[in-house]
Amino acid sequence: MLPEKYDTTLALKAIGLSDQLNKTEKRVGVALLDHFNRKTARCDPSQQTIAALLGIDRKTVNRAIKKIVRLGYFNSLRHRGIRHCNSYQPCWHRFRADEEKWSADRRKHRSRFDSPEMSPSVRQVCPTTRHEITSQTYPTNILPLTSSGPQQSAARQVWTGPPAREETQNYIKIFAPRIERRLGSARFRSWFHSVRLEEVRKDAIVLSVDMKFVASKIVEQFEPQVLECFRPEHPNVVRLVVIVRKPC
């Protein structure tokens, strides 16, 4: 059976990532794939040929091929190849299945950075990772923080959650546009799209975000610029505190 466009790449990837094959067995598997002819679907290298190319013993090649066939990476047809050598057919469906499993594992691992779902309780008080206390509300409270007036109005019209706090409304109307103009739209969309203003203290501005690495980035890279945007109304602020919203 002829392979599809990327099947050979998927096969190399599956063999390389396999935890059931040792180093030598993977080399033998790659050598078999290298002998596969995509036009004629022939794959019939002799074990002596593979042993000579890899610099290993023929018996080692024989054991490796038997294991590769047993695990379902190839089908072996006895004496079907040229000069009565065995013919080997890659099991493309097996390689595609391994690729799907690998992609699913990657998505699952990457999902650990996703923001957790929030409780539907209104203004539920809960501790954050930095021992700060913040109010937890519906996810729909996170409105698009852009300087465009019509977009903000549209967002407020479709919002059906509980009323946002006064600090959040002030942030959306006054401070977010300043930060966007100062940092640029690209940086603002990348790092401040989920920011909320939690509290204005005597000497500090307290913001909240939904991921820890975003909080670290904002404090490390943008603290002076953010504080400058708040100083016209709050001239005594000298610190920026960014906490991570977290459900109880």
Question: What would you note in describing this structure?
Answer:
The radius of gyration is 30 Å and the shape is rod-shaped. Helix 9 (212-230) links the parallel strand 6 (204-209) and strand 7 (239-244). It is an alpha+beta fold and 248 residues long. It contains 9 helices and 7 strands; from the N terminus they run ααααββαββαααββαβ. It has 2 domains: 7-112, Arc Repressor Mutant, subunit A (Orthogonal Bundle); 124-244, GMP Synthetase, Chain A, domain 3. The model is unreliable at 115-131 and 133-164 (pLDDT under 50). A 3-stranded mixed beta sheet has the order 5-6-7. It has a two-stranded antiparallel sheet with strand order 1-2. It has helices at residues 7-17, 23-34, 47-54, 58-70, 92-110, 149-158, 166-183, 185-191, 212-230, and strands at 74-77, 87-90, 124-127, 133-136, 196-200, 204-209, 239-244. The longest helix is centred in the middle third of the chain and has 19 residues, at 92-110. Pfam families: DnaA_N, HTH_36. Residues 178-231 form the DnaA N-terminal domain.
